[in-house]
Amino acid sequence: MPVRRNSKGKWFYRKRVKRPDGTKVQITGTPSRNTKEAAEQAERAHIDRTLNPPPETPKQKEVPRFSEFEKQFVEIYAKTNNKPSEVESKKMTLKNHLVPALGKLRLNEIGLKRIEEYKAQKLKAEPPLDPKTINNHLTCLRRLLAVAVEWGVLDHVPPIKWLKTPEQKFDFLSFEECERLIQGADDEWRPMITVAAKTGMRLGELLGLEWEDVDLVTGRLVVRHAVARGIVGTPKNGRTREIPLSKEALAAFKTHRHLRGPRVFCNAEGELLKKEGCKWPLWRACKRAGLRRIGWHALRHTFASHLVMRGAPVKAVQELLGHSTMEMTMRYSHLSPDVRRDAVGLLDQAARRCISVASGEGEAGKQAG
């Protein structure tokens, strides 16, 4: 009998049970109440559990902390898919901002509320961060979380609301100011300032330019390299572009021709110029020309602005600047003196055509009569 008493009079059960897979297991136990009926009930319940075990609860995967995953993100993802300068930028953003704020949290604990708190914290910092800078942090954070989802570490990326940024203003020189600036430059730096103003190249692209990228016969150059954080890489957006040279730009290259090395603009030893040191020659030229201080990027804006003011198509300006979207180039469109007048003029042209057609029909009717 599977249900019986032991020597002390305590009811218990012991039985061998055959499972559906053919294996046998012995079950035993004592009821909560010391009666035969309770022992039989306990036995039946134990048999049922043995033959119909509850489904195993899947183990919940442990989500890593932000500080743990960011190292994998940099080493495995960023260094494989980003330019060295972009990797350095992500590392600085993570080290100085995101890890101190979110490092102890697990990735699935970073939700919309926590992200909003991060934005508020950075806006109230001393000094407060610019909304555009905070949006750059959020872009890095979103990319990290998206990679975690792609790797199966995280279920989903939380929604991120970007901060509104004011319309970006840009400074540029008038035609007359630009010529004064070039004339006020040191002899050694005049070619570089001229090329910047007449090609729209970024400072990093000027520093990475090599003589093999410049064709002095056909009068054109190809932007293949750019320097960022002291590292030579590809231009922004990873795309090369060709720029035809104006007479002034071509003359600047010819007067600057040297044998110090492959780089067009370099120091006396042919080595890379440092970005930090390039501002002083430009500021000296500004002072001599009686102009406000500007940065090298203002010369890029000057190139684009002058093209638009001379009637160049905005699409052509976009290609010359290497903008990834037309939206970036459209910032200059308001400078065209004819764009709005010509647009409204289309209505007058249409009206004249209608009058002409109507007049022609009238004359034809008279002749037929």
Describe the structure.
The protein is mostly helical and 369 residues long. It is 50% helix and 9% strand. The chain has helices at residues 36-51, 66-81, 84-102, 112-123, 131-150, 175-184, 190-199, 203-208, 247-256, 279-289, 296-309, 314-321, 326-329, 339-368; strands at 3-5, 11-18, 24-29, 214-215, 220-223, 226-228, 231-233, 241-244. The strands form 3 sheets. The chain has a 3-stranded antiparallel β-sheet, with helices on one face. The chain has a 3-stranded antiparallel β-sheet with strand order 4-5-8, with no helix packed on it. α6 packs antiparallel against α7 (190-199) and α7 crosses α11 (296-309). The N and C termini lie far apart (127 Å). The mean pLDDT is 90.
Measure the end-to-end span.
Answer: 127 Å
Order of helices and strands: EEEHHHHHHHHEEEEEHHHHHH
- Our count of domains comes out at 3
The main β sheet shows up as:
3 strands, antiparallel
User: Roughly how many Å is the radius of gyration?
Assistant: 37 Å
Portion of residues within helices: 40-55%
The CATH architecture classification of the largest domain is Orthogonal Bundle
Spans of at least 5 consecutive residues with low confidence: none
Query: Hey, roughly how much beta strand do the residues contain?
Result: 5-15%
> Any idea of the CATH class of the largest domain?
Mainly Alpha
User: Average pLDDT value?
Assistant: 90
In DSSP terms (H or I, runs of 4 or more residues), the helix count works out at 14
The geometry reads as elongated
CATH topology (level 3) name of the largest domain: hpI Integrase, Chain A
Tell me the CATH superfamily of the largest domain.
Answer: Intergrase catalytic core
Strand order, largest beta sheet: 1-2-3
SS class: mainly alpha
Number of strands: 8
